[in-house]
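Board notes, transcribed. Complex of a protein with adenosine-5'-diphosphate.
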Amino acid sequence: MKVCKFGGTSMATAQSILNVKSIIESDSERKYVIVSAPGKRFSSDIKITDMLYSAYQEKFETGSCANNIALIRTRFVELAKELGLDIDMNKYVDEVEAGILKSTSPDYAASRGEYLSAVIMSAVLGFDMLDAGDVIKFKHDGTFDSELTNDLVKKHALNAKNGLVIPGFYGRMPDKTIKTFSRGGSDFTGAIIARGVGAKVYENWTDVNGFLVTDPRLVDKPKNIEVLSYEELRELSYMGAGVLHPDSIFPVQIDKIPINIRNTFEPNHKGTMIMASTKGYDIPKVTGIAGRKGNTTISMKKAMMNAEIGFCRKVLSVLERNGLSIEHVPTGIDTMSIVLSDAGLKGVDENKLIDDIRGAVNPDHIEITHSLALIAVVGHGMANSRGVAATLFNALYKAGVNVRMIDQGSSELNIIVGVEEKDYNASIKSIYNAFFGC
Ligand code: ADP
Ligand code: ASP
Ligand code: MG
């Protein structure tokens, strides 16, 4: 059987929900349906999940979440009405409001978009609803408990007689409180369920014709990728290709379940197949291009750094003590740079961090630079093939972009370059045209 996850783009309007219904009803193997919270209906619209985070913030600041709840209520009541459903959404939204007022973390609030979506979808399909909190479990330290979850999914979902709708994005802690995954985490829920029930394919339905070579918001109508390996997917999604959560491969790769990205609005398009290996397929030198803004570099110089045993370890220990995870560490003979994401640096005193590094290794020069964008060019095809780096750097040169950092993974699966944020869009366009343009 197949596990199908429908993202916020597919849950946004009554019409898109009817598309979901016809997709499910067109194939009796589509038995497990994971849903996200309703997303944006038009570009200036607000996602339900964002409204729910705002509701929690509102209660935190004013003691009430009435303003945001009113907006959320309107969306769900209208959806149920337009779909002709006989469910009292007001009652459900009242429960959510009461729950937010009692809760002490934003996770409960954030999870309710998926919950209410699942209530609607199970009524539309006539499927049972399985609450994700009953099967998706976290450990005391807040990490995901994959084995307990897998047992519970087998117990509660595998032998279900009827089709099941399961809300994405959240599970429960041992003390029964709700905990969410990181943003976009319904993709991960779908992968967990696919593993638990032993699906033959995990279909991830969204609003584009599969994984595209690059972000369609930056390049007009980029080509579609027919096949992608788990490794390539991980690189591209970690580096910013927002179409699939980067952790989605972990549950499915255990049993090599393929992921098929499909378009709810063009259901006959076969989309992108993501699998353990793409050997035997005709693969291009470069499979995809992804990137993200919001990075910071700490660069150091010290004469004879190469001969100073323990230099790197001491610098990395300072970062570890500050709870910072590192994106990249490009090094030269007497230079070392550390690339960190701005999100990870939030709340860290940068002056103190620099002083700590000075104290640990006494560099001749140290500086911190913000506004770095990272761009990854990814593909198994680049191993042993000539000219990829030349094409990449020529494209950046042609776009008048100054390259601030270069890093090539030892597996030759990617080349990562750092450019200034202001050059990001032009860089992506120029790289895309160099590899895929006519
Ligand atoms: P969903 O609501 O279905 O989870 P998302 O908004 O999370 O959908 O992901 C789909 C969006 O990802 C697309 O509409 C597209 O704008 C964006 N996107 C960014 N990079 C890519 C890419 N390489 N391929 C396809 N879509 C991409
Ligand atoms: N609704 C959540 C979010 O907006 C999870 C998801 O859509 O996958 O991040
Ligand atoms: Mg998504």
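The longest strand covers residues 288-301. The chain has two domains: 7-197, 288-436.
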